[in-house]
Amino acid sequence: MPLTVDDVDRFVAARPRLEAIAYRMLGSAAEAEDAVQETFLRWQAADVDRIEVPEAWLTKVLTNLCLTQLTSARARRETYVGQWLPEPLLAGDPMLGPADTAEQRESVSYAVLTLMERLSPNERAVYVLREAFGYAHREIAEILDLTEAASQQILHRAKKHVADGKTRAEVDEAAARRIVEEFLAAATSGQTEPLVRLLTQDAIGIGDGGGKIPARTKAFEGAVAVAKFLRGLFKPSEAKRTLAGGMPEIHSWVANGDPAVVAVVDGQVVGVMCLEVTADGIAAFRNQVNPDKLARATAQWAATEHGEPLFRAF
Q: Strand, helix or coil at 202?
């Protein structure tokens, strides 16, 4: 039976929440869009008049599609070239979802999305539904075909896996800009000492080139090693300009709620470096340069008033 206008409107109203759930589950905007589209096809094929609570039905279908996707994604990531990082979302992207509580903001931070790769598919689903969207354990149990007690136990395990011992500092956009500007001033100073002072002693640096852009296969570990790499990264060279397709405009921005460095060439985002800020300093930088994971960031950038760049790199 074809969908009525009301049925379509009901799905359209639910779509932003479904996309935000799927992105947190999968760490990929492109895969999240595919999962939501498949959910719509299931909605289209269903006898919607028999569905008592459409929101619950849609969430259950979407979550189970994401669980299947996560299982296959794990196999693909075993052969992924280099480090795998999530797809970053720039400030203002509706797929970031709700940000009213500290739990919601943390669940979409780049650091936590990366840490969620440690979780089993079920742990990730329970963590996202509970922490980011406030679903009761009774509701989660129905979605995942579990008992409430099992849902509570899974959440407890998931939170232990996600916790890394660091207390992330929440910063507003003005503070994020100051942090990025100070970070870039140190990175372009030609010296390691200013960067070391900004970094925590156990800082790490990770880059994701997906085999398409050169990126180190192992993380840099320790303030000195990270600082030396960053000093070299911002050192001008013809090879870097050729690889980037020109001289990138460097902007201070926010991605996934974190202070971020955004590099843009001719309107195309070619890199998003998210900084993990703690009370002790910058604990990590995670640099996404895989072009396959920057298309949505480029679209969001084009739709945003971003002002003049801080400088041109390389």
A: strand
